[in-house]
Design a protein that fits this description.
Length: about 200
Amino acid sequence: MKILFPSRFAILFICFITLSFLSINAQPNNGSNKEIRSWYNSREWLNGLKLKPHKSVNKQEFSKQYHLNKIWWEKAFSYLKETDLAALKPGKHLIDGENVFATVSEGPTKDLVQTKWEAHKKYLDIHYVIEGKEKIGIAPVSSASVLQEYDSAKDIAFYTSKGKYFQSSPGTFFIAFPTDAHRPGVKAKGYDKIKKIVIKIRVSE
């Protein structure tokens, strides 16, 4: 019985098809910076949400966290899309138990000296101003100095740092990862009060 072996061309063709399939189906967080930017800029992950991510969002970290637990992000963005945010009462609103939940606050913003840099380890934050405007600072935790050690019960540590400040207003959201120290609630010129929602998403390892 004569055994037929595939030709060298056939073997190379099969390898090419296999590699192409793996490349197409690879998650963006495992790809190059260019692939991640392309995926991020497509905004398909917003699932129709009309809000815009701020330019300060860490695209690589977002891609990593998003693909580790896509369902949590989908629930968070769906909540922002489908909920009448203006009608939400202040307090805690569960979205997916303690995995994804929202905290709504309403009241005065503060002078810069009355606020602190903070960061979390168990949760990351989506910050969105529903009404009014505030300033929010963003800085790498790696370059910040610890002011108050991490409290695991409250999932927060405080820092001193130099960072960039951005104006946060309706239409644009910010994301603060554990690698980001952030300083929210700073008074913006001409605005003394805001209504704001912070969606907390459990960090995926």
